[in-house]
């Protein structure tokens, strides 16, 4: 594949943030998180998470606002996954189109992406931008349309089975799973390949970023 496009998931791919999300959730909703493990929440949107742990609907907006605020305060560049900033810099240098897809609220997505120091506004489809999010294909279909990407020349990097299902259902042929400490329960059966480092992806072999 001479030409290619890249779509990145954000939480777990750009930033190793799943434990931070869980810690903030536990601090702000302690009555609902006693019997929940972080692995159970991987890939869920914030609303799905609050529904899952049993937060009443009338309390969810207040808790959501607090979670987003505290999360942003605690976020730092130390959460960036190894090599991701250098990879994205290389994509920019080689004029390779890329975008970001996430189930998280747009405000959280922008905070995470902001750690990359991009010179232009990112192409982003957040959980706020689609009616149906992952595992439905809608977020990936929206990004393909937003960036006018050829689906046959597109690859995705994900960390969850929900995200991989969404990308596969969108018709994307190259979907790579990049595990982290909290993804031990993920199966990755639909993934093209499970990678340990970004340089395991063949399409990145001709751009220098390591």
TrEMBL record:
Cofactor requirements of the protein: Mg(2+)
Highest taxon, organism lineage: Bacteria
Entry keyword annotation includes Lyase: no
Matches recorded under SUPFAM superfamilies: HAD-like
Family: Belongs to the HAD-like hydrolase superfamily. CbbY/CbbZ/Gph/YieH family.
Listed NCBIfam families: HAD-SF-IA-v3
Protein name: HAD-IA family hydrolase
Organism: Photorhabdus khanii
């Amino acid at each position: 594949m001479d030409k290619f496009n890249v779509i990145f998931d954000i939480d777990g791919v750009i930033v190793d943030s799943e434990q931070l999300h869980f810690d903030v959730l536990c601090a702000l909703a302690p009555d609902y998180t006693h019997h929940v493990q972080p692995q159970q929440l991987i890939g869920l949107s914030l609303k799905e998470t609050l529904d899952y742990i049993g937060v009443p609907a009338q309390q969810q907006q207040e808790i959501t606002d607090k979670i987003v605020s505290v999360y942003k305060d605690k976020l730092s560049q130390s959460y960036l996954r190894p090599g991701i900033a250098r990879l994205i810099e290389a994509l920019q240098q080689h004029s390779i189109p890329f975008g970001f897809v996430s189930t998280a609220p747009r405000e959280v997505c922008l905070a995470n992406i902001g750690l990359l120091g991009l010179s232009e506004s990112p192409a982003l489809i957040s959980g706020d931008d689609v009616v149906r999010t992952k595992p439905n294909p809608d977020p990936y279909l929206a990004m393909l349309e937003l960036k006018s990407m050829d689906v046959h020349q597109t690859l995705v990097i994900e960390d969850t089975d929900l995200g991989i299902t969404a990308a596969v259902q969108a018709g994307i042929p190259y979907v790579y799973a990049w595990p982290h400490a909290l993804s031990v329960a993920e199966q990755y059966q639909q993934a093209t390949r499970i990678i340990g480092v970004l340089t395991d992806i063949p399409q990145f072999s001709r751009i220098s970023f390591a």
